Amino acid sequence: MTDAVDNTVNTLDVTMAVVVGGLFTIGFHLMLQRSLMRIVLGFILLGHGTNMLLLVAGGTPGRPPVLEGRPVNPAEPADPLPQAMALTSIIITFGLTAFLMALAYRSWRLSGSDEVRDDVEDRRIDFALQRAGTDEVTGPPEKTDGDALGDGAGPDGGSEPDGGSDPGGGGDGSEPDHRDDGTAPGGHR
């Protein structure tokens, strides 16, 4: 007396797979934006997609996770583990969303916008690497006949190819960065 397990794909499974895939796609797209609110919304959509994925993994809806005193048929009960993982995921998503909202609000209060800016130190490091003629991946270039001194100086003897303009503000941190007009965070309110 063996019961055959029905392995056919029903419409609900396909619909849920499309919805979960759409939530993940939109969530990742929003997380790659520069606006902090879009990043938070993308994280929320990823959390909802994860919850739906975990609930779909639990099996056919409507079956009880635990049978009360009846003989257990392996094809009948639902798996309680995905439901417990979904509850845990809801709590973690809620906590991280609240934390990200607090960070976004604090950033907006300090800078006046929710746009994520490039890091000034990253620009300075990139400019120093360009000025030295090195690349982070490949390392320093090999010496050629035109650069016999090996000091990175150009043919006119100047060390900076763009006429001495330093987008990093001097590199030593003593000069203000002119890209942000020298205002302190929150100073333009």
Describe the protein's architecture and organization.
This protein is mainly α and 189 residues long. The protein is built from 4 helices and no strands. Helix 1 packs antiparallel against helix 2 and helix 2 runs antiparallel to helix 3.
Task: Give a nutshell description of this structure.
The chain has helices at 11-31, 36-57, 80-111, 120-132. It has 189 residues and is mostly helical.
List the uncertain runs.
Answer: 152-171
Give the H and E element order. Answer: HHHH
Largest β-sheet summary? none
Global outline: elongated
Radius of gyration: 28 Å
Beta-strand share of residues:
under 5%
Structural class: mainly alpha
| Average residue pLDDT | 74
Separate helix tally: 4
Number of strands: 0
- Straight-line distance between termini: 78 Å
Q: Roughly how much helix do the residues carry, as a percent range? A: 40-55%
Key terms:
4 helices; 189 residues; mainly alpha
Topology at a glance:
Layout: H1 11-31, H2 36-57, H3 80-111, H4 120-132
Helix pairs in contact: 1-2, 2-3
